[in-house]
Amino acid sequence: MKFDRMLIEKESPEEYGYQKIKHNLSESSVKDINIDDLHVNLKNFLLCYGPHKGKKELRELIAEEYENFSPEHVLVTNGAAEALFIVALSLLETGDHVVIEHPNYPSNYRVPKFIGCKIVPLELRLENKFEVDLNELENLVTRKTKFVSLTNPNNPTGSVISEKTLKEIIRIVESRDCYLVSDETYHDLTFNNQLPHAASLSSKAISISSLSKAYGAPGIRIGHIAVRDNALIESFLALKEHINICNSVVDEEIAIALLENKNKIMKNVKNHVKTNFGILKDWLKVQKGLEYVEPKGGVVCFPRIKNDVQLKLQAFYEVLLEKYSTMVGRGRWFDMDDKYFRIGYGWPSKESLKRGLENITRALEEVKNAD
Ligand SMILES: Cc1ncc(COP(=O)(O)O)c(C=O)c1O
Is it the case that residue 189 has pLDDT exceeding 90? Predict the structure, then answer.
């Protein structure tokens, strides 16, 4: 199996160099949290192997988020990235049929592609508010489908699958006896009601999440897989033991401290996100050259430069980054046209977001009719 790098990671701000970016509008997360805000006591801490499924206390805290769940239904992983890899490699074989939402975080479809699966994209279209079309899904899923994979809230569009639609999707996968893989990495970043976890609704639904995005803790590499099926968890564990045996015990300790302070952390996060969302909305309203769908979750928005706007696309990204030190996520990160770009509005301070958005307007203006 040969892998190539994802552009979203190759061109990521951490690989480019955080110090070279003044206004970072390229992140899909909130600002990184500082360990000093968590009061983690690591004195006299033994650097032993940890329980392979993850420390029980941590799995208990995660299981509490789900309905009718026990810690046995949770496998702690190295971020959602490893969870996606484990699930795909455990469930799929060359030639298998899978239905995968697009656009999406590329691992969701790239790993099945490397395995040699037949990938049927479930397209989220701007013209359809980036929403899942249930009729289309119903037609795409067959008795041969191994799983349907969705990211809810979606990255990069910020669209959200409602509880009603999610229940319909589960009905479809159950009727075809396949799985739903639900990437819920942005689960805690919805504006209105909290969404149910797919895994709470059916034992055929596998939920994946992490502490990277809503809690701003990607550096501890803690994610999880949740499914009410002990045999499945056991098969995921078998693969995990081949990759890294267990998680970092230090990371797990920090994750416990973080989840114990979850309410306080999320209160601050939501206030910040609300303020920044207002700034984004005001800016979007006056952008004549862009079409967009207002996001419903996550901290991202995925506008598209209108077709009748004549500009040099490559120059737009160059001017934005090199002249204005402002970074956004390019459409190509998601195997989409570069006329789309992702704005991450949760990471920057409100001042930096304002400046970054102004810089996008300036850069778009400067490269107009550049041909
Ligand atoms: C939808 C989605 N899933 C998974 C990941 C992987 O994140 P992590 O491994 O940090 O949890 C990302 C990262 O951007 C993502 O957007």
Answer: yes
